[in-house]
Amino acid sequence: MTKAVPTSSAAVPTTSTQQTRSIVIIGALFFIFGFVTWLNSVLIPYLRIACELNNFEAYLVAFAFYISYLVMAIPSAWVLKATGFKNGMSVGLLVMAVGALIFIPAALTRTYGLFLFGLFVQGTGLAVLQTAANPYITILGPRESAAKRISVMGICNKIAGALAPVALGAVALKDADALVARLGTMSVAAKTAELDALATRVITPYLLMTAVLVLLAVLIYFSSLPEIDTDHEDETVAAANTNKTSVLQFPHLLLGALAMFVYVGVEVIAGDTIISYGNAQGIELETAKFFTTFTMGAMIVGYLVGVVAIPKFISQEKALQVFAVAGVAFALGALFTSGITSVLFIALLGLANSLIFPAIWPLAIEGLGRFTKIGSSFLIMAIAGGAVLPPLYGSLADAYSPQQAYWLVIPCYLFILYYGLAGHKVRR
């Protein structure tokens, strides 16, 4: 029987029913990841209006959310060491609930810094959840089909990502074009009152989110989700890791973390900038607010390809290479066209991005054995690419144009291509 990333085999669900039940539970968590994460695509143009921000300031939404992965990933590993995977997931959900609750005073006072703090706390909870859930689903079966399982999780994540901007956009960006036109003709007092009313639109959605997150935390705590012991190595991996004293001695992991950093950056750029970019291309916000859903839909298509094709028709490594090349091609398409065509090329970056994460993760943590938890934390820290690259995009958009700023993603895809071709083999 083919082994997955080495772990105690007794800890892994032993029947197909147990495995299916576990995958369903983790799939629900990935749905939550996607819903909370891709609300940012609406929050960026919404808070830009409500808090009167420029491009760079607006993309601090992504910075505040994703920088928490860098700051909190190692503490997340400590939490999981103390609580185990299952209880750690409940803790992560409760922390996310606190972050959602912070949006209430932020909205009532229209304080941008408080919105950013709420996003940071939400990201902290997600750091705990992802540190647990990603290695869990990777280990939950054969290593060579890990990308297929992560693709199933990606479908759950991106269905939520497609629904989230539509749901919040219907509330937060309702009649936004008319509002922006009115604001230019108002007195200071009237403008302040209008913006205060706009800010309060998010109170009800985030109260509902808080309740759902608390309920899920309780359900996960009392669920039948089994614990997995990643500290136990099988004999082959234990022998290979005999002289290893630090996770830094695994160069394929370190290169994988860098690939993850640039990947998350381009994924967030593709999903979070497309609404504002569509508006910059002359498309009204009333229409553009749906564009993130197009990006998520393209990702879902890619994940479905992964479920069908990996590893039967294409290996994880080859999928990584092909989709990295597609990322370069679609980015160039966006740069050298205009209007809705250019916007659709940005949406197609979702297709290119879809199988990159599922392929990087198992390649990067392969053979880590007792270093799996801390290695997973490195990959979670790398999600901070979503904090660094979108504000850099915003700065370039202010300095040049929202379209020319997309040159930023080209070297990112080229490095991902390198990792798929050679970087993941460095350990050999």
Automatic annotation (TrEMBL):
Keyword Signal: no
A GO term, aspect molecular function: galactose transmembrane transporter activity
Annotated membrane topology: Multi-pass membrane protein
Cellular component, GO annotation: plasma membrane
Chain segments annotated as transmembrane: 23-47, 59-79, 91-108, 114-138, 150-173, 203-222, 253-278, 290-310, 319-337, 343-364, 376-393, 405-422
Entry-linked Pfam families: MFS_1
Positions of the Major facilitator superfamily (MFS) profile domain: 22-428
Gene Ontology biological process terms in this record: D-glucose transmembrane transport
Localization of this protein: Cell inner membrane
Keyword field: Cell membrane, Membrane, Transmembrane, Transmembrane helix
Record's function text: Intake of glucose and galactose.
NCBIfam families: gluP
Family to which this protein belongs: Belongs to the major facilitator superfamily. FHS transporter (TC 2.A.1.7) family.
Name by which UniProt lists this protein: Sugar MFS transporter
Organism for this UniProt entry: Hymenobacter aerilatus
